[in-house]
């Protein structure tokens, strides 16, 4: 058995029971060797079904012939091949846009209990670490490429991260394998190519084990990040108390347990929590968090981030995105109250139990509303909201039920959401789009 097969099999041991292995096949050296090794292994080991996937970016004329090369390789190895063409969005970084398009296609392909195998190797890992170091990345960035992570409904695995490019090339030459050399790989105006062709040769001339040492440093950073994640989870457990407004469907944390932490632990906990929702600012751009945390109790601070906003209300911080940041919804006539009324950009509202007599209209707070309550007389709606501590961001979206000009009910607020005799109750199911809760 070739020497590379043993570490490869060990790296893939957690995935031996997967439903399928998909090999990301560019036609280059690393993916060609990976596919060939797997085909050799399946002759003597029980492995999941193996298929290859080639992503055609269409960025250069030479790439038009690569699917045929990959098809010939797969035919010779008796491996099914799927070719997926993607559209690369124009932007400042062609590399990043192509990568995004590629991994979006992979994520759409991989199903539950399936694994995408990528041929990135130790030299790639070293380049990634150095590239991110020069960009001022933190511990998470310096962990470079993870050996495995979630991808779509399945997982991504990089089983060759302990193997050097020289080892892969030696194997390919020994086995008589041919591979594609991407012409763009020699263009040093791309940052990674500059590191590969201009920087690493100088480093390895002075430090021959530079790539191995850098990859080892990346592994140390990955371990450190695991510890930071564990610490964040502990800190977030203290702040993850249940709120009486959980029905809003808005992610939130209790502020006080977070504010008691040191500034570094605050940032660590929030990075961990917010990572599911948005891109995060670097360490130098957290002034928005400081302002939100330190604002007066009666203030309405907001920290705007890439994909949403962090609000503070009722001693908690709330993550708002999607429809929650759109203009207040428009009122509507409820012509068929026996059916749920869809509120554009604001979920839906329905009756539970009986149905109120019409004609009915659903509207939203404009200011100055008054509601008649049994044994309390007429009460200002603003005061009622204040009494119940309704978060400010939700007040303008709470559906109000009117008959003619009379305010009958406020959805979801106990004592305000039903008829005096309790014959019906008004229930609001807020929008859940783009909240990052799935």
UniProtKB/TrEMBL annotation:
<keyword id="KW-0547">Nucleotide-binding</keyword>
<dbReference type="InterPro" id="IPR011063">
    <property type="entry name" value="TilS/TtcA_N"/>
</dbReference>
<feature type="domain" description="Lysidine-tRNA(Ile) synthetase C-terminal">
    <location>
        <begin position="360"/>
        <end position="428"/>
    </location>
</feature>
<dbReference type="InterPro" id="IPR015262">
    <property type="entry name" value="tRNA_Ile_lys_synt_subst-bd"/>
</dbReference>
<dbReference type="Pfam" id="PF01171">
    <property type="entry name" value="ATP_bind_3"/>
</dbReference>
<dbReference type="Pfam" id="PF09179">
    <property type="entry name" value="TilS"/>
</dbReference>
<keyword id="KW-0067">ATP-binding</keyword>
<keyword id="KW-0819">tRNA processing</keyword>
<dbReference type="InterPro" id="IPR012796">
    <property type="entry name" value="Lysidine-tRNA-synth_C"/>
</dbReference>
<dbReference type="InterPro" id="IPR012795">
    <property type="entry name" value="tRNA_Ile_lys_synt_N"/>
</dbReference>
<comment type="similarity">
    <text>Belongs to the tRNA(Ile)-lysidine synthase family.</text>
</comment>
<comment type="function">
    <text>Ligates lysine onto the cytidine present at position 34 of the AUA codon-specific tRNA(Ile) that contains the anticodon CAU, in an ATP-dependent manner. Cytidine is converted to lysidine, thus changing the amino acid specificity of the tRNA from methionine to isoleucine.</text>
</comment>
<dbReference type="InterPro" id="IPR014729">
    <property type="entry name" value="Rossmann-like_a/b/a_fold"/>
</dbReference>
<feature type="binding site">
    <location>
        <begin position="26"/>
        <end position="31"/>
    </location>
    <ligand>
        <name>ATP</name>
    </ligand>
</feature>
<dbReference type="Pfam" id="PF11734">
    <property type="entry name" value="TilS_C"/>
</dbReference>
<dbReference type="InterPro" id="IPR012094">
    <property type="entry name" value="tRNA_Ile_lys_synt"/>
</dbReference>
<keyword id="KW-0436">Ligase</keyword>
<protein>
    <recommendedName>
        <fullName>tRNA(Ile)-lysidine synthase</fullName>
        <ecNumber>6.3.4.19</ecNumber>
    </recommendedName>
</protein>
<keyword id="KW-0963">Cytoplasm</keyword>
């Amino acid at each position: 058995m070739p020497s590379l097969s043993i570490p490869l099999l060990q790296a893939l041991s957690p995935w031996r029971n997967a439903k399928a292995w998909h090999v990301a096949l560019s036609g280059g050296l690393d993916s060609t060797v990976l596919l060939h090794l797997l085909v050799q292994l399946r002759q003597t080991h029980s492995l999941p079904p193996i298929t290859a996937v080639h992503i055609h970016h269409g960025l250069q004329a030479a790439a038009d012939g690569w699917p045929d090369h990959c098809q010939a390789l797969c035919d010779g190895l008796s491996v099914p091949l799927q070719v997926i063409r993607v559209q690369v969005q124009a932007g400042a970084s062609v590399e990043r846009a192509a990568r995004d398009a590629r991994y979006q296609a992979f994520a759409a392909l991989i199903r539950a209990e399936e694994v995408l195998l990528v041929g990135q190797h130790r030299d790639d890992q070293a380049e990634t670490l150095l590239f991110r170091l020069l960009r001022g990345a933190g511990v998470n960035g310096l962990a470079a490429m993870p050996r495995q992570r979630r991808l779509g409904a399945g997982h991504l695995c990089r089983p060759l991260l302990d193997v050097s490019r020289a080892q892969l090339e030696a194997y390919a030459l020994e086995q008589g394998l041919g591979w594609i050399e991407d012409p763009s790989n020699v263009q040093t105006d791309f940052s990674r190519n500059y590191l590969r062709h201009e920087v690493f040769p100088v480093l390895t001339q002075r430090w021959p084990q530079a790539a191995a040492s850098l990859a080892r440093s990346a592994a140390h950073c990955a371990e450190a990040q695991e510890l930071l994640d564990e610490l964040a989870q502990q800190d977030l457990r203290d702040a993850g108390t249940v709120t009486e407004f959980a029905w809003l469907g808005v992610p939130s944390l209790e502020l006080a347990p977070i504010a008691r932490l040191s500034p570094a632990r605050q940032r660590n906990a929030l990075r961990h929590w917010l990572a599911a929702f948005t891109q995060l600012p670097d360490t130098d751009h957290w002034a928005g968090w400081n302002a939100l945390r330190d604002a007066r109790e009666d203030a309405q601070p907001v920290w705007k981030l890439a994909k949403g906003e962090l609000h503070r209300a009722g001693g908690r911080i709330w993550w708002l995105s999607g429809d929650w940041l759109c203009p207040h919804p428009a009122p509507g006539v409820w012509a068929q109250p026996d059916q749920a009324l869809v509120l554009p950009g604001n979920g839906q509202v329905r009756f539970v139990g009986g149905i109120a007599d019409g004609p009915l209209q659903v509207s939203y707070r404009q200011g100055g509303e008054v509601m008649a309550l049994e044994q309390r007389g007429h009460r200002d709606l603003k005061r009622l909201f204040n009494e119940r501590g309704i978060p400010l961001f939700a007040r303008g979206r709470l559906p109000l039920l009117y008959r003619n000009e009379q305010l009958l009910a406020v959805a979801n607020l106990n004592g305000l959401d039903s008829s005096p005799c309790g014959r019906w109750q008004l229930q609001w199911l807020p929008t859940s789009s783009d909240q990052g809760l799935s």
